[in-house]
Each structure stands twice: as C-alpha cells, then as structure tokens.
Amino acid sequence: MSKRDLKKYLGELTKEQLEEQLIELYEKFSPVKVYYDFVFNPKEDKLEQEAKVKISHEYFPVKKPNAKWRPKAKMRRSVAQKIIKHFIMLGVDSFIIADIMLYNIEIAQTFSSQNFIKQELFYKSMFNSFEQAVNFIISNGIFNDFKERISSIEQETSQQKWKNKRDFEALLDKIDL
Fold first, then answer.
1. 83 phi and psi angles, rounded to 5 deg
2. Contact (CB, 8 A) for 122 and 170
3. Which pLDDT does position 129 carry in this prediction?
4. How much is the CA Rg of the chain, to the nearest whole Å?
5. How much is the pLDDT for 65?
6. Which of 46, 104, 123, 137 is spaced 20 to 30 A from 27 at the CA atom?
7. Residue 47 to residue 36: CA distance in whole angstroms
8. How far is CA 57 from CA 69, 70, 176, in A?
9. In the predicted model, what is the mean pLDDT of residues 41-61?
10. By the 8 A CB rule, do 137 and 143 touch?
C-alpha cells in the first residue's frame, strides 16, 4: 500500500475507527507502544543514563553479588549502535544522541588505557564509530558544541598509540578542527 492510498483510506474512517486502529496497533506491536510511550512521556535524561550504563557494562561489567569471578568485558560496538539507532528512530534530541555516540568511544578509550587490546577490529570499529559521530554532529549543526570532546578523542588515540591514530587525525584534518 502506498502512502497516498493509506491517506485516502484513513480519510474515509471515522474518528472512532481511527482510535480503535491506533489502540489495536499500540497493543499489538511493541515498537508502536515504545514510540507512543516516548512521545507522551519523553524521559530523555533517564534514557540517556540507562544507555550509558548499558554501554559501560560492555567494557566494565559489574560482578554479581554471589559470583566467584568477575565477568569478562565483551566490548561489543553493536550494543551502542543499537541504542543509537533506536534513539534516532524515536526522535531523541540530537545533543543526546551525539553525547551517547562520543561516550561510547570515550568509555572504549578508558578501557584500552587500562587493558592491552590486540584485536585489530576493535580499533577499526572505534574509528567507524568516531567517523559516524563526527558526521552526525556536523549534519545536525552542533559541531561547535562537541568540538572539544572530538578533539580529545583524537588526542587520546595518539597518546595511547592506537594503530589507526592517523585515520582519526586525517578525518579531523578534513574538517579543519
């Protein structure tokens, strides 16, 4: 069904029929419920804090009370990517999305400053996240608000002697930081 056909169909429904369909969608499909829950009660600060906790646990997992050993860091970039994609879909404020994008890289840098990482994929993945964050920030016109954090991330890659630190430098050279 095209958007035009949908508009025509919806235009033919009474107000009560439209309400019934929306309620049915809300009850039947969880993404619709999540969307409306966010639209009518957008606790963005709470969502942001929950996202940061989830991302930090990828690098610094919390030991369960009765566990005999500490869980190993998983370092999955996909966790942050899913959160970011979900926030974009919901229409969360671009400052919060940018903050989460940069936080993901910063927490990974904190982890790598304390642990030796030999997987080449980790560095490549962090550069991809950095590039996406910079592009998102520029496209949303909020670069000046995040300029210092972007610069610090790039400087940290040099300080930690990341294998791909030149890629970070080259990206920032392109945009004349």
1. -65, -45
2. no
3. 96
4. 21
5. 72
6. 46
7. 15
8. 16, 12, 34
9. 90
10. yes
Place of tokens 């419920």: 33
Gap between the terminal Cα atoms of the chain: 47
CB 58 within 8 A of CB 76: yes
Q: Which residues of 95-107 are buried (b: 16+ CB within 10 A; e: fewer)?
A: eebbbbbbbbbeb
Question: Quick one: tokens of 131?
Answer: 């590039």
Q: What's the farthest any 2 CA atoms get from each other in the chain?
A: 65
pLDDT at 136 over 90: yes
52 burial type by CB count under 10 A (0-12 exposed, 13-18 middle, 19+ buried): middle
pLDDT digits (tens, 9 = 90+) for 89-113: 888 999 999 999 999 999 999 999 9
| Paired tokens of 119 | 């997987």
Angle at CA of residue 60, ends 110 and 158, nearest 5°: 15
pLDDT at site 44 = 86
DSSP 161: T
Q: Mention every residue, 6+ apart, whose C-beta is less than 8 A from residue 63.
A: 69, 70, 71
Tokens of 163: 């294998």
